Structure formats: C-alpha cells, structure tokens
Amino acid sequence: MTEVDIEKENAAITKAYKELLRVSYRTLSTEDKKLIRKAFDVAVDAHKEQRRKSGEAYIFHPIAVAKIVAQEIGLDATSIAAALLHDVVEDNEDYTVQDIERLFGETVAKIVDGLTKISTFNADMDVSMQAENFRKMLLTLNDDVRVIIIKIADRLHNMQTMESMRADKQVKIASETLYIYAPLAHRIGLYNIKSELEDLGLKYTEPEVYNDILLKMKESKEEQDLYIQEFTEVIKNSLDKENLNYDIKGRPKSIFSIRRKMINQGVSYDEVYDKFAVRIIYKTDAANEKFLAWKIYSIVTDHFRPNPTRLRDWISSPKSTGYEALHITVMGPKGRWVEVQIRSERMNEIAEKGYAAHYKYKNKGEKSEDNLDTWINKLQEALENHGANAVDFVEQFKLNLYSKEIFVFTPQGDLKSLPKGATPLDFAFSIHTEVGLKTRGAKVNGKLVPLSHQLKSGDQVDILTSENAKPTPNWLDYATTARARSKIKNALKESTKIVAEEGKEILRRKLKQLKITLNEDSVNEMVNHFKLKTSLDLFYRVGTGTIDNTMLKEYASSRSNAFVSYLKNKITRKPSINKEELDKEEITNKYDLLVFGKEEEKLDYKLAVCCNPIPGDAVFGFLTIKEGIKVHKSNCPNAVSLQSNYAYRILPAKWIDSTQQDFPAQIILSGIDNLGLVNDITKLISANMNVNMKSISFESNDGVFSGKINVVVKNKNLLTKLMDNLKKINGIDKVKRV
Length: 738
What we know:
Blueprint: H1 3-23, H2 30-46, H3 60-72, H4 77-84, H5 88-91, H6 97-104, H7 106-119, H8 129-139, H9 145-160, H10 167-187, H11 191-205, H12 207-241, E1 246-252, H13 255-265, E2 276-282, H14 289-303, E3 312-313, E4 326-331, E5 337-344, H15 345-353, H16 355-361, H17 371-383, H18 390-398, E6 405-409, E7 415-419, H19 424-431, H20 433-437, E8 439-444, E9 447-449, E10 461-465, H21 475-478, H22 482-513, H23 520-529, H24 535-544, H25 549-572, H26 584-591, E11 594-596, E12 605-607, E13 619-623, E14 629-633, H27 639-645, E15 650-655, E16 663-672, H28 677-687, E17 692-701, E18 704-713, H29 716-727, E19 732-737
Parallel strand pairs: 2-5, 12-14
Antiparallel strand pairs: 1-2, 3-4, 4-5, 6-7, 8-9, 8-10, 11-15, 13-14, 13-15, 16-18, 16-19, 17-18
Helix pairs in contact: 1-3, 2-4, 3-4, 3-9, 4-7, 6-7, 7-8, 7-9, 8-18, 9-10, 9-11, 10-11, 10-27, 11-12, 12-13, 12-14, 15-16, 17-22, 19-22, 22-24
C-alpha cells in the first residue's frame, strides 16, 4: 500500500470509531468513552498486521461488531469495549486474557474469555465439532448473557460481509446461522437482527429463491406504498380527532418469513396475503399506555372489519421475550387482509432493542425481574445435562427457541407460559421436577386427558401425582420442552444404568460358559455383531433378556468363523458377495448419474428418502456412518441441520447427463371437481412419452377434489414440464411436488 492509501485507511478507521460513539443507544459518560477509547487502541494494535478476505483492514470488523452492539442492541460501554476486543486474544499471541483483565477489569476479561472459548475447539473430537462449539456457547449463558449477544452481533457482521468467501464456506456459515443464531436472536428479543440473519441465511442457502422474492418485492413496492397510504388515510382523521400523538408506518415482511408462508401454505408469492404490516406507534405516559392501545384498536376496527381469530393480545400477557403489542388482522381496501401492530414508544423500543430497553425503562430501585434473566434461569436446568451427545444437546436446546407461546392456568389461577404444542407433561415439569417425575395423569378444564394431549391457551391444568409413578420411554414422545425432555432422559438413564449393571454380570457368567472372556475387545465385537451403538445398550439388553442364550451362542460361533472368512477374503482379494458381475450394466448406469467433490468422482450413493431427489435438483452428498453417501436436496428439511452440525461430512454433488434411470416422484393436485377431469389428467400424462404413471388416486368432497399421482421420470425438467401442463387443465387450482 502507498502512503496515501495508508493515510486514507487510517482516516476511515478514525471516522468509523467516531461514528461508533455517536450512534450509541446508551448515554456514554466520560469514563465510558475512556474505556472504549482504550479498547479501540488495543484492538488497532492487536490487528495491525491482519486483513480480511475482502482485503480491508481487519480492525473494521471489531468496530462494526461494536457498532451493532451499541446501536442496534443498545448495550453498555462494557459490552462495546468487549466487542472491540472480541478477537484480540484469539488472533494475537501478544495478548492474553490476563492482559485484558489487567487493562480493562474482570467483567470485560470474562466476556472476552467467553467469546474466545467459543471460537476455539479440539480438532480431534469424533462428534460434530460445530455442535460441540454450539454447546460451549450455550453453556456461557450461565456466565454472562452478553457473551451470546456479542457473538450474535459478530455473526451478523460476518453474514453481511460474506461475498468474498468460497461458496461451500458461505453455505456452511449460513446454515449455522439459520440453525442456531437466528433462533437465539429471536429468543433474546432482537427481532430486527433475527430477520436480517434469516434473510441473509436464505440468500446463501437458496440464492435463486431469495433473489426471486427480492425482485418481486421491489416490483410491487410502489403499489404497496400506495396501498398503505390509502389504508392509513382512512384512520388518520379518527386518530387526530382523539388528539393522539402517533406515527404510522408500513413495514414489509422479511423475505424469509414470506418464503416460510409460501412453503407452509403451499402458495405462490402472489397468494401470500399479508406481505406487510402497518405499525401504529403512539406516545403516552405509563398510566394511559394500556388504555390508549385499546382505544386505537377500537378506532381501527370501527373502520375495518377485524378477523376474530387473528387478535393477539401481548399487552395483557407479554411474550417471555418481553415483547408487548396488540396485533390485529383487518380487512382493508380492495378486500385484502392487513396486519396492524399497535405499540407505545416504550413497547416499540423493547421490540427493537429487547434486553437494553428493558433495562432503560426499569425504575431505579425497582425489583421487577427481567424477562431475559427469567428465561436464562429456566434454561439452566436444561443446560445442566452436560452428558448428552453434543448434537442431541443442541437439538434439544433448539426445541423451544423458536416456539410460539401459549398461556395456561394452574388450579390456583396462576398464569404459566409454555411453548405452543406443549403437553400436560411439559406443564408438570415447568412447575417442579418432582411433580413431573411423579405424574400419573392430568386434568384439563376438569376432564381427564392423556399425557400426549396438546394444551391450548386458556386451559386450566391440574396434574395428578403418585409416589409410585415413574417416567417411561413413551414420555419422550409426549414431552416437547427441553427442560421436560432432559429430566425424563436423566431419569430413564438412571434406571437403564441399574439394569445394565445387572446385565453386565449376567453376560460375564454366560460368556464364561462359552469360554469367552468379557473384555473391551469382546464387548466391541458384540456391539457390532448385534448392531448396537454402545456397551451400555448391550448390557441393558442382556439385563432385560432381549439378548438371550441362543443369540449369544450364535455370536460365539460367528466369532470362530470370522477368522476363516477373513483369510479367504485376503487370498481371493475380492468382495465376498460378488453380485456386481451379474448386474454390472445396471449399476454402472446408476453410478454415472452423480459426481462428488471438486474432482467430480463417481462414488456409490443412496438417495435420501426424506426429500426424494431426482436429476436436476440441487443436491449435496452426506457421508453417513453406516450407510455410505446419502444424497439430499439442497432445500431438504434436514439440510440446515446437517450443513450446520456436520459440515466436514458434506460432499458437493452435481448431476451429469444420463437418461439411464427412472426416478419416482409424487404430485399433489387440488381444484374444482368437474366431469371428465380424471380423464383429462390421465390423457395428458399418457400423451407424455417420457413419464410413466405408477398410481393415481382422487377424492371429491362437495365439489372440491384432491388427488395424488405417483409418476416415474428421468429428470426434474420432465417433471416441471408435466406440472406446468397439469396447471393448464380447466378446474385445477394447485399442483405441487411432494
């Protein structure tokens, strides 16, 4: 770099630093500014030799992260300093955590240490390193929630500046973001950041879908703005008559939420009815806040008819993230549904800043328990289960990160918040672990219900307990919350261990009769022989009698034969099963279809049943432990979890031209029933030379029909063409592939 370039860059760094102080949500004292300045100087020194992939000086990254922490999340000076220093210890041998503590005090050092621990992990681990990484991060919730919040800000800036990375890295990072960081941001109440993380995640995991929706949103923006203007004009006069101090703005829904609606409702972009929301934000004092919200509600519903099933009152019962608002969906002009969100300025700040705004609006000396603290306390028990496999741990933790909430009552009339889909078992464990473990049954609104019964908002739940009741494995099918599941798993593990210990002794005696010693080698052989996962499974099955004498004798005889067959294979140097020669042509055709990795190698694979890929679909290979390579569609429901937890087992894959093999696919149709419709459909498929129809079934109900067609095709293009032609048949409304 020339001297002029260096000067320009230094000026840009100084400007970015000044901007950071200017945009801070909190009022910074002189002491705060000194602390931030000191952190900035240390960060500049530590990163002076580093550059990002894009070529810019690395220091711009910690400044950007600190700016997100200061402006968008609204944290204090301590957090801003920690954000500036978040990569210092990890990236620079000259600085240790002890140095940070000496320079900035214990709190900043603890946060920086937490952030450093998250980023470093042991490369020898046989479990998913990324899941282990997530587990470490989630466990830091116990220490200081600011660690997680700064990590979310760090991830947001990385997602915003990912263009110069390799495509496979982009997909891995975007999948992790959708898998854990966006749900975490949602749970901490950082809704704006959550939406941006989701949109950026979609941008890199499904670029075509993202760009398509983005283009359509840009095209319809002008028309949407006019509609919002027309809608607001109607209610403005009435609001002004009441002398209310308010602001109305339209807000488009995020690309990710539109995409989710399209998938969940099986509709196209144009058929998603609430692509935007109208937000009314009013100024008020604390005494009139609730009263004015309902007054505005009544004015809006005087002009537009509300949808009675779509009223959400989060003012009387705020969400556990602290979110407060009134949401109503009304029938606007031109017969279109419009979501209206009514919030005071205080509620709006809490919706946008979450944790920080709660802190600001707490009266000094007031001991109102912070929602975030309550949530972390609830989670601590779920986090205590350290023994779980890392992937299970993260999956279990994720269970109630994104869930919608319901509110149920105890027999005494206290209100409890639970995730949507919760059962009486979840309710029992939310009261107390002992109540959960002794549950015998449950009454909902005075009636006995099964433990699998899904609770609804407003239910009153009474748990019946018994000293003799014990958790059974079935309970895991009924419980949905992380807390309940972890407690049930722990209780089941305890009882399994007792049976397994007895089983181990039984196994030792039985093997002695078969002249086999019970040691590590023989245990590993039996685990493989009986296709089990762990030695505990083996001892437990012997203890319960699932593995009996006959099965053990079979194992003993297979053990003596194993050595002989091993020698034979060594001598012939051929696979023991030689079916390849018989079906060589068929197999060659199958394995000519897909190639894997940069070298475009032809490898054996199986198609995943969860998403049924066919040639032409965007796919990737996943290296399983027992079944070789499984091929999944890029938008498979399991893709984000696999890409996120097992990135090191993902193989890039692409189809190569081949017309040798047929692939099954299922099409679902619906529409208005009319005479001859089935005839039209079968004629159209029969006329298509490259599609073979395997089965067809139709149901008609009061003039509306739904049908399933199973076809066999060579590739995706033929299927798309067939679906396009089916849509043209008179009476058919929707055609989609399962």
